[in-house]
């Protein structure tokens, strides 16, 4: 049986495909390549198309024996979602509806889902656990919460079991050096800081230094992308063993401010990395740090690439060896 990976040519999806290949899984990737890269898919069968295209998805389900889906395909930028929320509802919410309907039609009853810390909004407690309230502060997080709720009702009505993984901030690159982060435009903090280190940007803009945090900049929990990938493999195993639907946080449990990230990047790269303080970015909560106890206990997840310095070094290895990323877009 094959695992269908939607968005498998993207940053996190390609690392999950690599982890699935390492243990000999049969893989089918669906990706529009709007953000993803053909070269990022290290194995399996790649279908280029959109999951909202019904005839295209019929071909994918008819040509393969799929027993589980890992669903990465989405728009995922906080700032952009505040400007064009309609695109987020269309691609994320309607896209997931299309996927769940196809799964139901073809009798596929297991889905692992890329959710996010943005479902929580401004947290009541730090670290955040899965029982804390979910009041998103941006349209992106709101669409991810809507997708989780949709999966709940497809479980109730059709028995499709889901594991929703709420990632905190993915960072780093695969240890092979073959795959890494390459978004266009890039908006994530660590790759932008490294682009500044490479001289591809004049400086890093810090979005706000007036938050209620020790140095005034936002605090996030950075988790290595390969540790995230491992959690997906464990989640597929758990669903295959007949487990019920569940939600898990995935983070390191340690928060770093934007200024701390820049400081560590300066020491890893040995470059100056100029910094300019700018206005806050709409939709950003001040602090997002995970409690991942539940994932450790129930999934047996053991993230071990936890030092931020090592995470940034793995990203730096990728960016310095591939300053133009995959270099496959016009
Ligand atoms: P990404 O943009 O690199 O990957 C998403 C992939 O999905 C891209 O390759 C894109 O081409 C594809 N895609 C999007 N819409 C599609 C559609 N309708 N049909 C077919 N393919 C489509 O993003 P990423 O950083 O790898 O994130 C993957 C998932 O993880 C997303 O769902 C995101 O919301 C979630 N997430 C990411 C982070 C993070 O720190 N990067 C944190 C929390 C959650
Ligand atoms: N950030 C920043 N400058 C940038 C990009 C990001 O100051 O050029 C900040 C952003 O405001 C947030 C943190 O870095 O507080 C992490 O942002 P990112 O977009 O990487 O991830 P998010 O937490 O939004 O998923």
TrEMBL record:
<dbReference type="GO" id="GO:0033499">
    <property type="term" value="P:galactose catabolic process via UDP-galactose, Leloir pathway"/>
</dbReference>
<dbReference type="InterPro" id="IPR036291">
    <property type="entry name" value="NAD(P)-bd_dom_sf"/>
</dbReference>
<protein>
    <recommendedName>
        <fullName>UDP-glucose 4-epimerase</fullName>
        <ecNumber>5.1.3.2</ecNumber>
    </recommendedName>
</protein>
<dbReference type="InterPro" id="IPR005886">
    <property type="entry name" value="UDP_G4E"/>
</dbReference>
<keyword id="KW-0520">NAD</keyword>
<keyword id="KW-0413">Isomerase</keyword>
<comment type="subunit">
    <text>Homodimer.</text>
</comment>
<dbReference type="GO" id="GO:0003978">
    <property type="term" value="F:UDP-glucose 4-epimerase activity"/>
</dbReference>
<keyword id="KW-0299">Galactose metabolism</keyword>
<dbReference type="InterPro" id="IPR001509">
    <property type="entry name" value="Epimerase_deHydtase"/>
</dbReference>
<feature type="domain" description="NAD-dependent epimerase/dehydratase">
    <location>
        <begin position="3"/>
        <end position="251"/>
    </location>
</feature>
<comment type="similarity">
    <text>Belongs to the NAD(P)-dependent epimerase/dehydratase family.</text>
</comment>
<dbReference type="Pfam" id="PF01370">
    <property type="entry name" value="Epimerase"/>
</dbReference>
<keyword id="KW-0119">Carbohydrate metabolism</keyword>
<comment type="pathway">
    <text>Carbohydrate metabolism; galactose metabolism.</text>
</comment>
